[in-house]
Amino acid sequence: MTIKNFERIFDKSMTSAKAHECITYIESSNGNFSWNKGYGGKDLDTPIIMASVSKLFTTTCILALQDQAKLSLEDKITKYFDSDTLKGLHIYKGKDYSFKLTISDLLFQTSGLPDVFGEGKNNLNKRTVHEDISVSFDEYIAIAKQLKPHFGPNTKNRAYYSDLNFEMLGKIIEKVTNETLKDSYQKYIFEPLGLKNTYLPTSEKEFIPHSFYKDKKIFRNNLILSIPACGGGVSTAREMMVFLKGFFGGKLFDKTILEQNQLYKPLQITMGGIHYGCGHMQIKLNGIVTGFKDKGSIIGHVGMSGTFAFYYPEKDLYLVGDVAQYADPGMCVRLAMRLALGAN
Question: Could you tell me the pTM of the whole model?
Answer without folding.
Answer: 0.97
